[in-house]
Design a protein that fits this description.
mainly alpha, 2 domains, 3 helices
Length: 93
Amino acid sequence: MSQENVADHLKRIRSDYCKGSLRDTINQFAPRSVGPCVTFIKVPEPLKIESNAVPDEIANALQERMQYTLDRLVHAVEQEHGRAFYHNPFYAQ
């Protein structure tokens, strides 16, 4: 369990059981991270839209392009940082 996970659990417990003061109310809405967080952002290639294009085809092309970009980003991050796996206790195969 990472430091971020512990902080999330503590925040959830605190918001469930610690009520009453202004600080407790603010802590329920304003998250505070334990350490620095990293965000990876990737923009898909532009999509050229013709004047006679069908909206469903545009939506499908955009979804495919965005999914391809997301898959490439996830692959690159996994190669560089490894993959974090968290067991879901509510999921049974």
